[in-house]
Write a structure and sequence with these properties.
Its EC number is 3.2.1.39. By secondary structure, the chain is an alpha/beta fold. The protein contains 17 helices and 14 strands. The two termini are 37 Å apart.
Length: 525
Amino acid sequence: MPPIFTVSLTSPSALLLLLPFFATLVSLSQGFVGINYGTQFSASPSAVEVVQLLQRQSITNVRLYDANGTMLQALARTGIQVMVTVPNTQLLSVGQSNTSASNWVKTNVLAYLPATNITAICVGTEVLTTDPNAALVLVPAMKYLRTALLSSNLSANIKISTSNDPSLILDSFPPSQAFFNKTWTSPVLLPMLDFLSSTGSFFMLNIYSYDIFKNSNGIILLDYALLNPLTPGNVVTDSNTLFQYRNLFDAVLDACYFALAQLNYSTLPVVVSETGWPSGGDTSDTDATPENASIYVSNLIAHILNNTGTPKRPRSPVSIFIMELFNEDVKIGSAAARNYGLFNASTLQPVYYLRLSNSGPLLANDTTTQLYCVAKPGSDSDALQIALDWACGIGRANCTAIQPGQLCYEPDTVQAHASYAFDSYYQKNNRVMGSCDFNGVAQVSTTNPSSGVCTYPGSSSNNTVNVTASNSTSNFTDIGNSTDINGNDTSTASLLLHLAPSNSLSQILLSILSLMIVMCLTSQF
């Protein structure tokens, strides 16, 4: 019988041997949050300025829509993982032969290694739906590029895939009945999926939650699209699987998982190559606002980093690329399509601020704790009055300042008074999830509503409280009371259970590792 290998947990050398093991498990148990970098803007920040911005925001993964040499040089020695792209305009050339693909790799990949950490090549963008004439050369191009990588011993380090539009998936609700457009199944999809699976790569899907929401003409709830908490009656159930969906993102991703499973690729990883929410648009884009963009991106990042997965693949890591680093003001398409950026290309300042917590340094310079609860513009005045009365009464908000003769009495409007009362209630309850809704007539804002001699409660409490705010569709609650305005249970115990964070596998592993280190150090004294 061979000897059993044992490791003493009190040995420092043994712990050092185990560190790579734990690091591997941690990395496999989490998805990443990357960002897309498009360049269709009139401003001209230098590549060095762009990379410095990425570094300040602790962004570890970036996807380029080309293989711009200046940008790749600027990314050298940063450690940032880079996905380069073969533009659709070059696809026909790359897909002609091994020689053309090899030349592309030499010029756009090999020339920048190893200083620049190129980890993936995206071959075309939404080719099947936007450039169908090039569809038949897509898989050959992917194979030629891999051959070029193999010849340079890089195939294990650099993965090859291609991004896909969600419209490629038909009958996507309920998710369990989704399938791929059969026009492309045999000639392109099956060979592509076989290539991705055999090379250890991933399927790339763009998820445009805003477009899906807008085109639903009111069928899809805004809060469902924004990943906001839902009341039980608004949770969507797949009648075939009984899976419950609390946001649109998971439903679209699961539709992709089901479509892949139908073609016998049920374990193929999926990377979300584009997703975001526009902060502006034209007159038809009433929900394309900085506020909604902040809510969507903040909620989505929290969802990804919590490692919750989807109903079909629970606890399975999901990686995303946020759409996108800068607004692209000269981009062809809708006004909304030009306003997906987190930052302004001319000033390098945030277009809006995120509300993140427990995300480490990621996008820290684009995160604010300056949060207020105000009346939602356009809300019905009667609904506002009811909510105002509740906040100042049962809700026990401090409404002294909006009484006649006090500092915040003017302007004497229900909108202004409700905003003050809502913020007082929100700050009193430490800005917990669900405390800024008031049956849909309130919203979280990053703009200080204080004016003149009237100072809102959040102006002072924002300096000491550091929590992530998230707009909610649940009924407004009063911590300590047992019921809200509709008589629903809001006891402190039930709220604490709802808000208790769940430990991810990585957190558990890190805790174990920390305990082992403590044991080791203790044993030395």
